[in-house]
Amino acid sequence: MNVLSTMPVALTGSAEDSDLALAERHCPLLRLDDREPFRPLAAGYAVYRGEMQSVSSKFTIRPVADCVIEYAIWYDWDIQHLYDLEHVWVHVDAAGRAVKVEASRHGARRTMTRPDGSLPVEGPRPVLYLEPGKHAHWADPGEMRAKAGLLIEGMCGAFVGAQGVHRSNRFSDRGLIAASPFQNRLATLKLKRMRFTPAWQFGCDSDAGEGLALVPWSRLKAWIPGRVSSLVTALPATVPHLAAVFLDCGDTLVDESTEEKIPGTEVVLKAALIPGAGEVVEQLSRSGYRLALVADGPRATFENVLGAYGLWERFEAHVISGDVGELKPSEKMFSAAMTALGLTDAERVRSVMVGNNLERDVLGANRFGMMSVFLSWSTRRSHVPRLRRERPLFTISHIWKLPELLERIELSLPELASCPEVSS
Question: In the Enzyme Commission scheme, what number(s) does this protein have (predicted)?
């Protein structure tokens, strides 16, 4: 669907019609890598006939001839984040000839010339090459690969999805674009599933298909926040992800050897955390995972110990055997956690239980139909399964390995059947 049809309509007059004709005549032809996953969708143009601040970028516009046509070019994604707005500036003389071309490259404005010093134009139109995945502009593909090829391949590979939802731009600074930690993680996961190796062949261009929707910048500016909101809102239905992470406490987060109990009771007054446990819980919370504490013992124990480190409130649900009336591996413990998080039975298979006890944590999770993660940090309990269902699906030696494992699990989940197209 042509995105032009989803943008607000603007009234035009003779001056606007003249600017549109000028913008159409000199609209850049953008050449894309054959494996490029993201096409440019729209360009918001503005025409400057004197020095002034750009309406869509941080730069001051200084025409070197009769006027400058500014193209703010929109992509839904680049390979490292959701949101990408790039720029091309075409300086035109009174005879209608392009005399200078500038374009954006990683936050800078660069003059575009071919290696022989000539302008990269075909007739009245600039012809520019886009960095695979990143969409920064070059006048020559060979120069691009020679000077930035390794960095570009790294950004399309090892560093893919590094920023999730881009939240440092003119729209987010005004509160018009926002994303929760959960949505930000999903954006990262989507991009990591799309990592690719550039072909370094540029047989595709922006004229293909429906082409580039060319509109006044004011229309594109009004459309972008809603577009981003639609993209962000669609992420949970389109990106495979874990529904929840259940965590045990003793010898999973807290070192049981350091526990100090209230005399004559089973209530722990204080204890030390396993090294790295606090940081991991904070990291998982910041990444938008839905966390449930599923632990055996009296509620006061966990309120005392985890509360002292500010971790109690990081859990969305607290399912404690002292409240439920049964210990793990009872199904009631896991079912209560699912209910507390508002999850369905179908979401069991996308949920994870992490604990140190094969007989309780692992057996209970396996019987319940969840993924089980055995934390083998402590030797206080057996590491040898007695039953087939005590065999964990995954084993980690230390709690700080959990975030990486969870991401690997999410990236291995099957694609979701429902992937609605974003149309707004």
Answer: 3.1.3.-
Strand partners, 247: 293, 354
Reported as type and span, the H/E element at residue 402 is helix 402-412
**Whether pLDDT at 249 is above 60:** yes
Instruction: Look at the alpha carbons of 326, 331, 333, 335 in this order and tell me if their dihedral is positive or negative.
Output: negative
The two structure tokens encoding residue 254: 């807290």
Q: Is the pLDDT of residue 421 over 50?
A: no
Based on the number of CB atoms within 10 Å of its own CB, is 313 exposed (0-12), middle (13-18) or buried (19 or more)? Answer: exposed
Of 5-19, 71-85, 151-165, 299-313, the range with the lowest mean pLDDT is: 5-19
Q: What percent of the chain has pLDDT over 70?
A: 95
**Closest to 273 measured CA to CA, from 259, 293, 292:** 259
DSSP string, 244-274: EEEE--BTTTB-GGG-EEPTTSS-EEE-PBP
Domains in the chain, please, with CATH? 3-238 (no CATH), 244-412 (3.40.50.1000)
Rg (CA), the chain: 28
Q: Please state, in angstroms and as integers, the Cα–Cα distance from residue 197 to each residue in 26, 37, 408, following that order.
A: 32, 11, 20
Separation of first and last alpha carbons in the chain:
10
- The DSSP element (H or E) to which 233 belongs, if any, is helix 217-238
Work out the angle at residue 205's Cα, subtended by the Cα atoms of residues 146 and 227, and round it to the nearest 5 degrees: 105
* Nearest by Cα to 192 from 410, 414, 423, 419: 410
CB 400 within 8 A of CB 276: yes
- What pLDDT does 12 receive? 52
Rounded Cα distance between 297 and 326, Å, is 10
Element (H, E) at 47: strand 42-48
Contact at 8 Å (CB) between 123 and 92?
no
The string of DSSP codes covering 314-380 is G-SEEEEHHHHSS-TT-HHHHHHHHHHHT--GGGGGGEEEEES-IIIIIHHHHHHT-EEEEE-S--S
- Cis amide leading into 329 (omega within 30): yes
Rounded average pLDDT over 222-238: 97
Contact 175, 148 (CB under 8 A): no
Tally of helices (H runs) and strands (E runs) in the chain: 10, 22
The pair phi, psi for residue 398, each rounded to 5°, is -150, 150
